[in-house]
Amino acid sequence: MVSEELKIIVIVGLGGAIGSITRYLVQDYIGAHDFPWGTFAVNFIGSLLISMIFFSSLGAELPPLIKIFLFVGIFGGFTTMSSFSLDTVGLLISERFGAALFNIFLNGGICVVGALAGRWLAMLLS
User: Fold this and answer.
1) Residues near 8 by Cβ (< 8 Å), separated by ≥ 6?
2) Buried b / exposed e along 10-26 (16+ C-beta atoms within 10 A)
3) Is the Cβ–Cβ distance between 103 and 44 less than 8 Å?
C-alpha cells in the first residue's frame, strides 16, 4: 500500500507538470515581447481561475486530494510569481524602472483584481 504522503507527492507532481506545461503553452502562444506579457497573462489567468474554483460551490465540495491536485499542483505549476520576480529584477538591472513598476502593478495589483473577479464569478454562477 502506498503511503498517504507519497500519494500526495505524486498528485502534486502530476498537477505541477500539467500546470507547467500549460504555462509554457500560454507563454509560447503570447510570444516574446519587450515586456513580460506572458508572465502577466499566466498570473492573471491563474489568479482568476484559482479564486473562482476555490470560492465556488464546486470548490467547497471537492475532495481533499483533488484540492491538493488543483490548488498546489496545477495552479502552483501554472502561476509564475517566481518568474515575475525574476522578470522584475531583470527590468531593474536594465534600468527600466518604469517597466519594473508597471510589472509590479500588473502582477501585484491586477492579479488581485482577477482573484476578486473569480470570487464574484463563482458567487454569480453558484
Assistant:
1) 65, 68
2) ebbeebbebbbebbeeb
3) no
pLDDT at 45 over 90: yes
- What whole-number distance in Å separates Cα of residue 71 and Cα of residue 76? 7
Name the pLDDT band for 24 (thresholds 50, 70, 90). Answer: very high
Side chain identity at residue 82, one-letter code: S
Kindly report, residue by residue over 61-84, the tens digit of the pLDDT. Answer: 999 999 999 999 999 999 978 888
CB 20 within 8 A of CB 77: yes
Alpha helices in 1-74 (DSSP H): 4-30, 37-55, 57-61, 64-67
Q: Which residue has the cell 502506498?
A: 2
Can you give the pTM of this predicted structure? 0.79
Q: What is the pLDDT of residue 31?
A: 86
- Its domain, for residue 81, covers 4-125
Q: What is the mean predicted confidence (pLDDT) over 41-67?
A: 91
Rounded to whole angstroms, how far apart are CA atoms 85 and 66?
Answer: 29
Count of the separate structural domains present in the chain: 1
